[in-house]
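Researcher: Let's do a round of design. I'm pasting the structure tokens now; please hold your answer until I've finished.
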């Protein structure tokens, strides 16, 4: 059921205190014990402030009634997304999918969302996305903003994008986190390959001037049959598509254009 997110000042303070504590200490708590919020390589397992701001810009622009995220973890992205939803004047639902919420993540994502006053917004599924997403499609679920931040493998991410695309109308936005991972970048290129989506936001730097190597690559594209001789990601680099930084937002600008047997390079 959809809910208005009526929050008081105390709940807003709690949310910001939760975020500040995680960013400052790089730890989280389930109320009984404290855990490191870093992975085995010492990298954060949560989105940073710039990525959170991108999520909130997307929601403010689209003004969705239903959002979805894959990979709740400690709930940092959930807090950013739900706070933006709470600012909208209509009823909203936030769908979160995380098969490891009460095991690997100790239920901390749900706890943080509840403490911040967002329990009424949440529709939570503790199961794998490849099982949950097809069922949501079959139920006729429609979403307007989605965040993909689950298992960082090409096949898994591509599968998640496929089902999200089925639920996302023209004008909706899908956001990919960790696009600095090669597998995720490839899925973003796939999403951009037929003109159905365009990059509308990212956390990277603005486009700079083309380098000498860039001009050489551009010249090579005029060679006869270059598109058959050269890889597409050599002809058009990631940054030229707008894939910059660690997080990108793609707006759906038309229904799928790809013909049944067509396979564009990406």
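Researcher: That's everything. Go ahead.
Model: Designed sequence:
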């Amino acid at each position: 059921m959809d809910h208005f997110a009526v929050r008081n000042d105390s709940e807003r303070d709690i949310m910001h205190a939760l975020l500040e504590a995680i960013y400052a200490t790089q730890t989280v708590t389930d109320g009984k014990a404290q855990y490191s919020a870093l992975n085995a390589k010492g990298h954060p397992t949560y989105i940073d402030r710039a990525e959170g701001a991108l999520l909130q810009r997307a929601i403010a622009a689209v003004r969705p009634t239903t959002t979805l995220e894959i990979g709740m973890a400690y709930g940092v992205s959930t807090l950013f997304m739900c706070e933006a939803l709470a600012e909208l004047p209509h009823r909203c639902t936030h769908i979160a999918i995380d098969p490891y919420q009460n095991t690997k993540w100790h239920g901390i994502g749900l706890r943080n969302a509840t403490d911040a006053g967002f329990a009424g917004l949440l529709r939570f599924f503790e199961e794998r996305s490849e099982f949950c997403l097809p069922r949501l499609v079959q139920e006729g679920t429609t979403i307007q903003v989605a965040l993909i931040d689950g298992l960082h493998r090409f096949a898994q991410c591509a599968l998640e994008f496929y089902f999200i695309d089925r639920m996302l109308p023209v004008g909706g936005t899908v956001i990919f986190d960790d696009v600095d991972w090669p597998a995720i970048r490839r899925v973003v290129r796939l999403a951009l390959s037929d003109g159905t989506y365009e990059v509308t936001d990212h956390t990277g730097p603005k486009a700079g001037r083309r380098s000498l190597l860039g001009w050489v690559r551009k010249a090579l594209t005029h060679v006869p049959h270059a598109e058959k001789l050269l890889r597409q990601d050599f002809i058009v680099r990631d940054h030229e598509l707008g894939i910059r930084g660690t997080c990108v937002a793609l707006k759906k600008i038309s229904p799928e254009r790809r013909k049944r047997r067509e396979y564009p390079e990406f």
